[in-house]
Design goal:
It is built from 14 helices and 22 strands. With about 500 residues, the chain is of the alpha/beta class. Strands 6-5-10-11-12 form a 5-stranded mixed beta sheet. α10 runs parallel beside α13. The longest helix has 20 residues.
């Protein structure tokens, strides 16, 4: 039977397994995948073993690309086609298991720094852009030639932004062009002045200028429709951009534009609702959504300390890519917090599919840190590294004697008065999961452990030395929907 947490049984019997066909004609492989640049990258490093990482939708071309590169460079090429988490992150762990000396990443990338040093080349793709149509759309939406505007784009359209700016600069005086924050080659001198890096992009701001002064013109998407807010790259731009500045999106094929102000407001309202859910929560599940992005262990410890200081129980869950079926096994959790890259944390989630809401680290920070600025004044940070010490956005927890911990707070969901946050450091013995009884017995006091204890099935038990040894017997054969010994109904 089909339900929210499972797929229909007929889908398993009707699923076709096999190798996906070639998606791109052989004559266009060099242009689409920029093989000339990849060959130069491999030869400059002198690598003998190179890993290629493809997203699921491009795996049909992986074999042809690998064969051509292996023939041209003479190096051993490996294909990483199955990532444990999002395909936008660099799979350095998979590359190390293959003994690769370098990695080439194809498709959309979050451009997060990897957890381990490895030479990486990003091939974002080159989608065709109708420059004349986009330039006319820009002029329609920005009639003031003195207004400061930033040109943004989806990664596959970034190659055309400079050409678009060339058409617009004779009329517009304050035009800023962003570029993907690709890693600089070793020994490459840093540009002066150093550009601002945010949202996986570089912004060459003039001295004394800030990004909050600029409006935005985004080139990307398929069409001006409501489905565009499911794009995690556009979502993080809309959430993090200054609310008072205009933000327009433009389809690179047709030049159709749309004002994203209403959509940005809807996204922010949804995130503020999730902050309220986190404030009401008593048990928090911390989902490990990446192992290949830098500082993920430090961020996990920060979220645990944050939950502990707010008097909430937190449990770390390493489940791979989160799905509704996986998270439904933990009904004792009030909310989940996904520790992932910016694109993975904002990945599309079908409405009503998850049993409990899935939050980003920024929303947990806003819920548990009383020193965090109120909505409208605090920036929305999509990368967990911006919450850690050393970041200009880091807000330390106030000391235990601070009055911020005793400030009254009313839930906007239930309308009830919340109790004051109970500040407790990680090394406080009072927050231990195990509490001693007078009879010198130990009992678990966490809500999750109590719920687990009430379950009729608690998992496999070893029972070493308590089970008689018997001869193995033949078990059932078939699939769960129709075993061979059940007959037909």
């Amino acid at each position: 039977m089909e339900s929210t947490f499972s797929s229909p049984a007929e889908a398993v019997l009707q699923r076709e397994a096999g190798i996906p066909g070639l998606l791109t004609p052989l004559a266009d492989l060099d242009r689409v995948y920029e093989l000339e640049r990849v060959v130069g990258f491999v030869r400059d490093l002198g690598c003998q073993r190179v890993a290629l990482q493809f997203p699921d939708q491009l795996l049909g071309d992986a074999g042809a690309v690998a064969a051509r590169l292996e023939e041209t460079t003479g190096s051993k090429i490996f294909i990483l086609g199955d990532t444990a988490y999002g395909s936008c992150c660099v799979d350095v762990l998979g590359a190390e298991q293959a003994g690769a000396e370098a990695l080439v990443h194809f498709g959309t990338a979050c451009l997060s720094p990897p957890a381990r040093p490895l030479p990486i080349a990003f091939i974002l793709g080159q989608r065709s852009v109708a420059l004349e149509l986009c330039a006319k759309a820009f002029e329609v939406q920005n009639p003031d030639p003195t207004a400061p505007v930033v040109l943004l784009s989806e990664p596959a359209c970034a190659h055309a932004l400079e050409a678009l700016a060339t058409l617009l600069r004779p009329k517009y005086q304050d035009l800023l062009v962003s570029s993907p924050a690709l890693p600089l080659p070793s020994g490459y001198p840093s540009p002066e002045p150093e550009p601002l890096e945010r949202f996986g992009r570089r912004f060459p701001l003039a001295p004394g200028r800030c990004l909050e002064e600029y409006g935005a013109f985004y080139v990307g998407g398929s069409k001006a429709s409501a489905d565009s807010d499911l794009d995690p790259d556009l979502s993080r731009l809309l959430l993090g951009w200054a609310p008072g500045q205009p933000f327009f999106s433009c389809c690179p094929d047709t030049g159709q534009t749309q004002d994203e102000g209403v959509r940005a407001g809807r996204l922010r309202a949804r995130r503020w609702y999730l902050v309220e859910r986190a404030r009401d929560a008593r048990v928090v599940g911390l989902l490990v959504g990446t192992l290949g992005v830098a500082r993920h262990c430090e961020a996990l410890a920060h979220l645990r300390n944050l939950s502990q200081a707010a008097g909430k129980r937190s449990y770390v869950l390493a489940l791979g890519r989160p799905t509704p079926a996986k998270l439904a096994n933990f009904p004792e959790m009030d909310v989940f917090v996904l520790l992932a890259c910016p694109l993975g944390a904002l990945a599309p989630q079908p409405s009503g599919s998850f049993f409990r809401p899935v939050l980003t680290p920024c929303e947990l920070e806003a819920a548990c840190n009383p020193a965090w600025p109120p909505p409208g004044l605090a920036p929305y940070l999509t990368h967990y590294a911006d919450l850690l010490p050393g970041s200009p956005f880091h807000v330390p927890l106030p000391p235990p004697e601070s009055e911020l911990w005793d400030a009254p707070d009313v839930s906007l969901i239930s309308g009830e008065l919340r109790p004051p946050l109970a500040w407790r450091p990680l090394n406080d013995p009072g927050c231990s999961v195990l509490t001693p009884r007078p009879q010198l017995e130990l009992a678990e006091s966490s809500p999750a452990a109590s719920f687990l204890n009430s379950r009729s099935w608690k998992g496999l038990e070893p029972r070493l030395g308590q089970t008689l040894v018997t001869e193995a017997v033949r078990g059932r054969r078939g699939i769960a929907i129709a075993y061979e010994d059940e007959g037909s109904s």
